[in-house]
Amino acid sequence: MTRMEKWDAIPDEDTITKTAEAIRGRGIGVEVVEYRVQALERVKGMIPKGATVMTGSSTTLDQIGFMEHLRASSHGWKDLHAAIGAEGNEKKRHDMRRKSVTADYFLGSVNAIAKTGELVACDRTGSRVGAYHYAAKNLILVAGAQKITDDLNSAIKRVVEHVMPMETERVMRVAGTISAPNKWVIIERELQPNRVTLILVRERLGF
């Protein structure tokens, strides 16, 4: 079995349904949709006008069209990502990035989903996962169903064996450097009602 066959296959409907139930049992909202266009429409409907919005680096958000929509500036949100990019002072830009994890709505993805309900994500600097634990008022995660694994141990293994090699290839193309799983988050349970929502798409999205 190749790496892609092992870690990148869409599971059957029964597995998707049971995984969603397990995630909900951990205090995390789950919405299962068929296609990426439905995921985008659902995300757009969740964020009210005037809300501050920040995103972590996410191939999935690119693929569903959210980043293009965010750049369009017709949504009525306060785009913190654009504000950070427009700041010319490096120190101020760094401070703004640190504060952005407390956005009203922070959007990103996860690298693996255990059938038992845990969500696993990591990044090199922590600028994305820093919002996941507690800082963001609302956390919206979008993920393709191919990220579902048997359990937490296999979720972590998926990141090491599959995600990091692909992410390193991507980062080398765009920035000429390597990636590394320096900062991890495992969402085992969410205690704050309605804070975290996972939109699970029956498509292959992201890594």
Describe this structure in words.
The protein is α/β, with parallel strands linked by helices. It has a single domain, classed as NagB/RpiA/CoA transferase-like (Rossmann fold, 3-Layer(aba) Sandwich), CATH 3.40.50. It is 43% helix and 21% strand. It contains 9 helices and 10 strands. The protein has helices at 3-7, 13-24, 36-46, 59-64, 66-71, 80-86, 90-100, 129-135, 152-175; strands at 29-33, 52-55, 78-79, 105-108, 112-114, 119-123, 138-144, 148-149, 183-187, 196-201. The strands form 2 sheets. A 6-stranded parallel sheet has the order 1-10-7-4-2-3, sandwiched between helices. A 4-stranded mixed sheet has the order 8-5-6-9, sandwiched between helices. Helix 6 runs antiparallel to helix 7. The longest helix has 24 residues, at 152-175. It is globular, with a radius of gyration of 16 Å. The model has no long low-confidence stretch (mean pLDDT 93).
Element-level helix/strand string: HHEHEHHEHHEEEHEEHEE
Mean pLDDT: 93
Tally of contiguous helical segments: 9
Helical percent range? 40-55%
Percentage of residues in strands: 15-25%
Radius of gyration: 16 Å
Beta-strand segment tally:
10
Shape: globular
Strand order of the largest sheet: 1-10-7-4-2-3
What is the makeup of the main sheet? 6 strands, parallel
